[in-house]
Write a structure and sequence with these properties.
This protein is an alpha/beta fold and 318 residues long. It has ten helices and twelve strands. The chain folds into two domains: 230 residues, Spore Coat Polysaccharide Biosynthesis Protein SpsA, Chain A (Alpha-Beta Complex), CATH 3.90.550; 75 residues, no CATH class. Helices cover 42% and strands 17% of the residues. Helix 2 links the parallel strand 3 and strand 4.
Length: 318
Amino acid sequence: MRAAEPRIRMTDLSHPAVNLCIPTFRRPEGLRKLLTEVARLDYPGRLGVFVVENDAEGREGAAVVAAMATNFPFSLTCVHEARRGQTFAYNTGFRAASRAVPTPDYVAVLDDDEYPASNWLIELVAVADRYRADIVGGPVYPVFDDPGSWLAKSGLYQPENYPTGPLEMIYGAGNMLIRRSALDFYLEEPFSHAYAFTGGSDYEFFTRCRRDGRSFAWAKDARVSETVPRSRTTLAWLVKRGFRKGACNTRIDRVYAAGLPNAARRWAKGLGLVVHGVTLMPAAALRGRRAMAERLFEAARGAGRIAAEFNFHYEEYR
C-alpha cells in the first residue's frame, strides 16, 4: 500500500467524509483522465481516493498514481490486488476504503473508463442524506471514441435516468455511493467471486442488499461519463452483451427466486424473449438497422437466460 500526502486543501468537516474506490486493470490513460477529473471535484468534505491495481505484472495503474500523487488535492492511495478479476479488485477496494482511518461516512465507486462531473459527489451525498438511503446510484452516459458510428447514434447505449428520489434497487456499481455502516455488514465478500469474469456481481450484491432491507435512491444529476471504445460499437459486441446480461439475470434469479413456479417463470421469460425477438426481425428489417439491433439484443438476452439454466456462462472479462 502506498499513500501520499495531499496538497493543502480546506476541508469542511460538517460534510460527510467519503472514500472513493477505483479498481483498475490495464487502462492507464483512462485512469489518468479519471483522476484528473476527480481532482476537480468540488466536494467540500474530506475525500480519500483508493486506486486498486489489479494487474500484478504491468502495474501501469500504480505508476499513474505515483506520478499524480504529489500534486493531488485529496489523499491518494494505491492498493495492490494480485488475484485477477473484477470482484477481487472491488472487494479489496471496499475493505481498504471502509477500514481506513479516519473512518468514512460513505464509500463511493467509479470505474477506470469513467469520469465524473464536478458536482457528482455533492449530488450523491445530498441524495443519500435527504432520503436516508443506504445506497445511491446515478446515470452513466456514453462518450464514444467513434461518435459517427450508426450504433453510437442509435440511442441503444443511453442509460436509464430516473427522477431523483427513492428507488426499489439500482443495478450497476459504475456510479455508486454506499453508506459505510451498511457496507461493513458485507465486507467478507461484498461482490461474489462467482461473477469475477462474467460480470453481474454488482447486480447480485444489490439484490442481496434489497432482501436485507437496505434502502436505495437515485441521483439523476450525479452524472458520470463512460468512454466507449470502437470495439464496443459493433453488433457482435451488442449481441454478446445481451447474452451475458440475460445469463447473469437468470443466475441471480435461480438463487433468490428458487422453486418450480419461479423456474417456470424464468423459462417462460427466456423463451419469450427469443421468440419475440426472432419473430419480429422481418418487420424490424423494414424499419432499419436500429430496430434490427434491438431485436437481436432481445433475442440474445433470452438465449443467455436459457443458457444459464444449463450453467453455461459467457466470461466477458476473462
